[in-house]
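Dear colleagues,

As part of the handover before I leave the project, I'm documenting each prediction I ran so the next person doesn't have to rerun anything. This entry is a single chain, and its sequence is reproduced below.
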Amino acid sequence: MMNDDLDQCKARREKLDSLKAQGHDPYIIERYERTHNASEIVSDFAAHDGATVRIAGRVTAVRVQGKALFFDLTDETGRIQVYVRRNEVGDDLFERIRDLDVGDIVGVSGFVFRTRSGETTVHASEALLLAKCLRPLPVGKEVDGVRHAALTDVEVRHRYRYLDFIVNAGARSLLVKRARMVTAIRSFLDGLGYIEVETPVLQAVAGGAAARKFETRHNALDLRLDLRIALELPLKRLIVGGLPRVYEIGRVFRNEGQDKKHNPEFTLLELYQAYGNLDDMMDLVEAMYEVACVAVNGSPRIAVPARASEGVTEVDLSQRPWPRLPIVEGIEQYAGVSRDEFANLPKAKAACERVGIPSDEETSVGGIIEKLHERFVQPHLIRPTFITDFPVETSPLAKRKPDDPAFTRRFEVYMAGQELGNAFSELNDPIEQRLRFEEQARQRARGNDEAHPMDEDFLMALEYGMPPTGGLGVGIDRLLMALTGTDSIREVIAFPLLRPEH
């Protein structure tokens, strides 16, 4: 519980009790019709000068000047000033308005004018309390357009997210941008003939990614179940079933650590296109990410945060094609480890140690390749770039490269130093898929608890025949982070998971 000022809480409750005793209980009001919002009035005074308006929002400041008073009303679009005169509204209403507290939700009716100082203001004929704020809000004070001593503690902001949204317009703005981005992505995919589907959250075998699972139990069926870690395998079953273009945007759950880029539940987009391949997915990513960027920023350009810039201050997603870089070439370029050093596990471990990375826990050459990539290459990937040709050991669901079978037809897309998507030419050979799952089982036996589980039902589906297919997975949260320059995933999730206070 937050350390509220107990005296303020007591005083606010006493005001509420007094209002109720006088027959002015705000909680009996069910509806208040608004005709305008603050932003449209302030941004276009000429169109509203003298017009009667009805607005509503929170009181964020009260200034009494004798027989008149001003208060600031803030709604979801911004702030506007309200002016009240005692001799116009009467003593009773004036006293109730003067007694308003910061945070109270109020409806106001009146006409629009400008004060001598030039501030757009609503001259109120009515002000109606719609909900009493019984706790003091951490709004701080605004001086010369800068708000001081507002809610800034990150832990408090994320724990009491509703307070964060009340006092921090930027926090609300990120959620609005998120909604616009998801809407734009849906419209883009729908326009290409994809259909949106829903697949089970509770699964007997949670596959499609390398991740630890959350487990639960279905009491009626007496079944142990997993919360899904990916959307992939059910969507591929739909490809087998004759639905050629499908996608899902849904929550997935991974029982792993938390940091600025990882939350145990997050939103994933996965899509699959029958008769397509990795190159089709590259074309789709270039176009879809541009659409998403325009929805968020109004243009295909994003500013690169200084922490990741390497001298690049802006990237333009409309500049195509994006570069393609095989993963081992990137490692040779940025880590100085040559392809020959990945000939076998002992050599790969020795290379790892040579560049300062412990290798004791590594169980495969592929795992070492991805670790070196993450450490040495990823920070340099500022402009949109496709990293291609991932090792087969870490890509159990992707087709092999015909001319280089130790690697696969897989890419990850990077921008501003972040991984923002993962795509395959999907493996559709059920015999090869079984062998891959068996190798994953051996990795699990050697201590890799994120190795892919055996899924007999999925293998049976493949035996009925899945056409050549291109697939893509995109973390919605992380994509929004990159497009908005946000450095923490908690900022783009409405209610991130935190440890309980007590």
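The chain has a mean pLDDT of 93. The radius of gyration is 29 Å.

All the best with the project,
I.
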